[in-house]
């Protein structure tokens, strides 16, 4: 009796370990389901959307500019973030801090004062935009909702090793099922041309 119970228990433990190993390998090397939260990727991904993040691209170093990725937050490794890859190592990024991006002001004071204030604001915005080169082994991430996203504009480029996977499919809600669209802002950085440097 004791041997029979012990045999069943050991068999159950063995199957549990086997299935656990299979599940671990599946999540580590194939992919995982992710419930997204927050407004930073709107309208591409909204709060509570469920996506599938595949891992093969990460392991094979096949992440490309324009891909949406799940990565560990550089602030807290226990928190995952969902952002779009804007630049890879060696790319030149033209960027501005989120607080200066799309900033608009309306003034109803005098015509002359309006002109002075608007000119000063434009100069301030231009000076806030700067160019940097993504270092080796890093990527530059941004949310599609540029006005409401904490991303590389705040914390800089992140190590490639923090990427967990590439989002390849939206699963929920059902009416949005399918592959993901390109960035609504078309914010894929390229080195500026000679005409832009003047």
From TrEMBL:
GO cellular component terms given for this protein: mitochondrial inner membrane peptidase complex
Gene3D superfamilies to which the protein is assigned, alphabetical: Umud Fragment, subunit A
Quaternary context: Heterodimer of 2 subunits, IMMPL1 and IMMPL2.
One annotated GO biological process: protein processing involved in protein targeting to mitochondrion
Keyword Protease assigned: yes
One protein family per Pfam: Peptidase_S26
Active site: 40, 83
Enzyme Commission designation: 3.4.21.-
InterPro entries in alphabetical order: LexA/Signal_pep-like_sf, Mito_IMP1_subunit, Pept_S26A_signal_pept_1, Peptidase_S26
Domain of life: Eukaryota
Molecular function as annotated in GO: serine-type endopeptidase activity
Protein name: Mitochondrial inner membrane protease subunit
UniProt keyword Transmembrane helix, yes or no: no
Species annotation: Austrofundulus limnaeus (Annual killifish)
Enzyme class, first EC level, given as a word: hydrolase
Key words, A-Z: Hydrolase, Membrane, Mitochondrion, Mitochondrion inner membrane, Protease
UniProt record similarity statement: Belongs to the peptidase S26 family. IMP1 subfamily.
Subcellular location as annotated: Mitochondrion inner membrane
């Amino acid at each position: 009796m004791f041997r029979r119970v012990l045999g069943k228990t050991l068999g159950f433990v063995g199957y549990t370990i086997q299935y656990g190993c299979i599940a671990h390998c599946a999540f580590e090397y194939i992919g995982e389901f992710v419930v997204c939260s927050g407004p930073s990727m709107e309208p591409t991904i909204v709060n509570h959307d469920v996506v599938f993040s595949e891992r093969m691209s990460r392991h094979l170093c096949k992440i490309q500019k324009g891909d949406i990725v799940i990565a560990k937050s550089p602030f807290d490794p226990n928190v995952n973030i969902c952002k779009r890859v804007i630049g890879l190592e060696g790319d030149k990024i033209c960027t501005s801090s989120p607080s200066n991006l799309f900033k608009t002001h309306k003034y109803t004071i005098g015509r002359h004062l309006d002109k002075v204030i608007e000119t000063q604001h434009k100069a301030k915005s231009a000076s806030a935009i700067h160019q940097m080169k993504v270092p080796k082994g890093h990527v530059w991430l941004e949310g599609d909702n540029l006005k409401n996203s904490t991303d590389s504009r705040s914390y800089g480029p992140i190590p490639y090793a923090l990427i967990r996977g590439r989002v390849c499919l939206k699963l929920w809600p059902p009416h949005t099922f399918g592959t993901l669209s390109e960035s609504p802002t078309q914010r894929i950085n390229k080195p500026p041309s000679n005409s832009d440097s003047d």
